[in-house]
Amino acid sequence: MATLTLNYNARNSLANQMANTTLCTCAKVVAPKREHVTDNKEVLKAYQKMFGKRNDNKYSDNEIFVFNSQRNLSQILERYED
Predict the structure, then answer these.
(1) What does the pLDDT look like over 14-56, one tens digit per residue?
(2) Nearest-angstrom CA–CA distance, 42 and 38
(3) Angle at the Cα of 59 (from 54 to 63), degrees rounded to 5?
(4) What does the alpha-carbon distance between residue 60 and residue 76 come to, in Å, rounded to a whole number?
(5) Is the dihedral of CA 47, 51, 54, 60 positive or negative?
(6) How far apart, in Å, are the Cα atoms of 37 and each of 29, 54, 63?
(7) What is the full DSSP assignment across 4-59?
(8) Model-level pTM?
């Protein structure tokens, strides 16, 4: 099974006909996975753990950049873990 993502003009009749034909030939619409959606409370807890608690929960752009870089790097490294 393969996943196919289409980006087309919904007003184009030929594109609509092709999409309908594809759906009629045993294809199905699958809801997108939301793997990277996180709760704001979880992110705030992670900021507080990394940079310490703040009274107003305000973090600088540099701190947010560092946090996001480390989080993204950890997700990349998880793929290559044996």
Answers:
(1) 988 988 888 888 777 777 666 555 567 888 888 889 889 988 8
(2) 7
(3) 125
(4) 25
(5) negative
(6) 21, 24, 20
(7) ------TT-HHHHHHHHHHHHTT----PPP--S---HHHHHHHHHHHH---SS---
(8) 0.45
